[in-house]
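Posting this for the archive.
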Amino acid sequence: MVNLLANVGVWWLEILQRVGRGFLFFIQILTGLPALLMRPRLLIKELYSVGVLSLTIVLVSGLFVGMVLGLQFFMTLSRFGAESALSVTVNLTLLRELGPVVTALLFAGRAGSALTAEIGLMKTTEQLSGMEMMAVDPVHRIIAPRFLAAVIAMPLLAVLFSVVGILSAWFIGAGLLGVDSGSFWAQMQTSVDWYNDAMNGIYKSIVFGIVVAWIAVFEGYDTIPTSEGVGRATTRTVVNGSLAVLALDFILTSLMFGGI
């Protein structure tokens, strides 16, 4: 029993130590962001890497998620003669929840894992140590541009996901299931509020982007410099990033829409 309690205590101390290192690392990243104003090309390069290269999976996922929502909501609403509410349900679901959340999960799986693997390999091959020997701060030169690019790309990808999802739901509803097209867009205009629905979804995606990017770059920078360590760090990025997104989604939804 004593050994069990000791092991639990050691485990918690390791977690707290790692969280503390993560927060100190986050502060280091923030101090390196102003210098990026002098190197816009570096930021644009990282935006292409984490944002543009993630477009395919985000757009295709948004297409099929919107089509599934349009079909499923129509089948459910048709039981109550409320097919005209298809636009409201689809738009609010995508803008408030599925757009930010699904995009963040896809982002963690694609861009987050890539960031961790890239930085972890740089540490394994001692490129980061070489930069320190040349008096170049690797956190400011390597980590900060990738972090900021991920934070910028995440809400843009979430918006594109929601737009594609809404269009595909409209195609299913109006093009295949007989919902009136004019009614679909009119319901959207009257029922969807720009600030309470659209902007709150964007705020969510910004928070998700910060957290996923922070986890990804920290796991890469803090990895054990071996091939096995990089693999474990990449796995932790996807798992911890996804869990953090889901937990934060509940908290933010409660604050924004639940009245808590």
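The chain is about 85% helix and 0% strand. The first helix runs from residue 2 to 32.
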